[in-house]
Amino acid sequence: MDMTEFTWESLATLGGAAAATLLIVQFLKAPLDKVWKIPTRWLAWLIAFVILLAANIVTNGFQWNNVPLLIVNAFLVTFAAMGAYEATFATGDRKKAEMATKMQRPGTKKA
């Protein structure tokens, strides 16, 4: 497996943009929530759009006719990033919550 860092060409792909979006959203989400309550989905879409726009400008140059495609592709990247989050981080969070509800202090009875 090739373990190289991101390149502009890799960020222009669905997988590269989704991975970068996931990492950036997870890094920014908690600090931004302290200042502004931005819905995570819209934050993820904005980050995905900026990544795709920057990668497109660097690799192909800017063209206005690409903007509608970048908007749609940003939704695809956002959903891919959210799905990756659900498959990795959220599953662990749910399991922790389930374990916490199953664990009771000694001497208490279940209803």
Summarize this structure briefly.
The protein is mainly alpha-helical and 111 residues long.
Task: Report on this structure.
Helix content is about 75%, strand content about 0%. The protein has about 110 residues and is an all-alpha fold. Helix 2 (about 15-35) packs across helix 3 (about 40-60) and helix 2 (about 15-35) packs across helix 4 (about 65-100). The longest helix has about 35 residues, at about 65-100.
Terminal-residue CA separation: 51 Å
- Mean of all residue-level pLDDT scores: 85
Spans of at least 5 consecutive residues with low confidence = none
The ordered H/E elements are HHHH
As a whole number of angstroms, the C-alpha radius of gyration is 19 Å
Quickly count the helices: 4
- Largest sheet properties: none
Shape: elongated
How big a fraction of the residues is strand?
Answer: under 5%
Annotation, overall tally of beta strands: 0
Fraction of residues in helices?
over 70%
Q: What structural class results from the helix and strand content? A: mainly alpha
Structural features:
single chain, 111 residues, mainly alpha
Summarize the helices and strands and which ones pair or pack.
Elements lengths: L7 H4 L2 H22 L4 H21 L6 H36 L9
Helix pairs in contact: 2-3, 2-4, 3-4
